[in-house]
Amino acid sequence: MSKIIRIGTRDSQLAMWQAKTVQSQLEHLGHKTVLVPIKSTGDLVLDKPLHELGITGVFTKTLDIAMLKGIIDIAVHSLKDVPTILPKGIIQAAVLKRGNINDTLVFKDNEEFLSAKDAIIATGSLRRRAQWLNRYPTHTIVGLRGNVNSRLEKLENNDDWDAAIFAGAGLGRLNITPENSINLHWMVPAPAQGAIMITALESDEETRAICTEINDEVTQICTTIEREFLNRLEGGCTAPIGAIAYINKEEELNFKGILLSTDGSKKIEVVKVVPLGNHHNVAEFCADYIIGKGGKVLIDELTQGDKITNIYSTKQLTNDQKAMFHDDVVAESNDDIKINPNRLSKSVVRNEIENVIITSQNAVESLLTNFSAVELQFKNIYCVGRKTKRMVEKRIGKVKHYEQYAKDLANHMVEFMDGAEVTYFCSNLRLDTIPDILSENNIKVNEVEAYETKLDAKKVEGDLDGVMFYSPSTVQSFLQQNEAKGIAFCIGDTTATEAKKYFKEVRVAKVPLVESVVELVNEFYK
């Protein structure tokens, strides 16, 4: 045909190799082409890591603009550098057969540093950094940017560095893989690593049809799944996300995905194997699995970056609870009270006890630490809180009556309890509410200190919008290290009563659950 296909490419040595590979394949099929090298922002800014440049597609944006302006017909990219959502009007036209998918470690002298406590590894990739620190947490990671040759040169010139990590495909394509290098088969590569992608204008049907002639279907299937997984996790260059899919001899699609915190201390993995043909929902399933295992919290932490904490929880929150917060919330949580079960004498439960009060799950844990469920012969059990009731009935026995608040339970017992004596399994920091009400109504209270509550708050830096409290003890503990500033978000009235002694504004959850306190915080930010 007479049309000359203008092939846009970055002007780095590796990008030119990729573009010439596309050019060779197209010309082998009889098409005329010309290379159009264009310098990208990613090549010009070498003094910052990729994730600090503030945009996705740092290596593709300039070529996208050139295509939309009609300067080039197609663009050739390393597929791992391409954003998962392409600009309007541009589509993926083809993917070449994939090369080496592995990350490669290039080292100075030998591999002894791998077993050493201290070592310095160079990489500009958050994904490589996180996975390396997850495997070698005592090592130090330093930044490394530039083209492949300049990075190899920097490794050679920095005497303190032990090794640097490269994409194996890049080294191989330039035929410069050093002898002192190994493939890191344990490291999950970037989604679509080792693949070359061609983009074209959606409206240019003639060029798109030509590109399909060199498309590799297997690579297309695998990289599409990897990129969809990446997209569903909302990750670009700024998130430590890895993914690899391949088709084995049994015609099965194998997938492995990974998400980490930037320091490598947290890692969530997923593996899925399905027959080819049933692979269309693999990316969605695996991304949902990662999110359900705490991935949303990790992504939120990455998104928040250096934002200052504005909400503090005096109880360690679960990943699901953290995921409930409004987007404007930057939450920090800690168990400001520590619970230690006391050693209880066998004489405490030697005989059946007619009436027992249990006001927390901590008391249940303490009882079961000291005695078997069979030894806990309680005739009538009275509880505070729905969760405590469920735990008692699951592990000890049926609950006679429960209320959400201590005052309501005490008043109920005054009116309906049989007998004039009760055993109260409590903490060393228990409130006076139950003993006072019962004693005033001639009910004898035998207190058994089942567990110790230790105040163990941390100092919180900066001004907070609010603090989440779950018991009077958490209020007392927090104020040992911090001032009463912002709003006190409280789980119930008893906690709020204590908070009102110190905080100007106190808000109380409608239901005494941690999730209800989170909702209380969200209402403030709405």
From TrEMBL:
What Gene Ontology terms describe what this protein does at the molecular function level? Answer: hydroxymethylbilane synthase activity; uroporphyrinogen-III synthase activity
Q: Which chemical reaction does it catalyze?
A: 4 porphobilinogen + H2O = hydroxymethylbilane + 4 NH4(+)
EC code(s) of this entry: 2.5.1.61
Q: Which UniProt keywords apply?
A: Porphyrin biosynthesis, Transferase
Is the keyword Transferase in the record?
Answer: yes
Give every Porphobilinogen deaminase N-terminal domain span: 5-208
Q: Which cofactors, by name? A: dipyrromethane
* One cellular component term from this protein's GO annotations in UniProt: cytoplasm
Q: Does the keyword Transferase apply?
A: yes
Superkingdom of this protein's organism: Bacteria
One GO biological process term is: heme biosynthetic process
- Please state the pathway this protein functions in, per its UniProt record: Porphyrin-containing compound metabolism; protoporphyrin-IX biosynthesis; coproporphyrinogen-III from 5-aminolevulinate: step 2/4
Domain Tetrapyrrole biosynthesis uroporphyrinogen III synthase residue range list: 347-518
Q: Which residues form the Porphobilinogen deaminase C-terminal domain?
A: 221-270
Its function, per the record, reads: Tetrapolymerization of the monopyrrole PBG into the hydroxymethylbilane pre-uroporphyrinogen in several discrete steps.
Q: How does it assemble?
A: Monomer.
Q: Which family does it belong to?
A: Belongs to the HMBS family.
Protein name (record)? Hydroxymethylbilane synthase
The major lineage groups are: Bacteria, Pseudomonadati, Bacteroidota, Flavobacteriia, Flavobacteriales
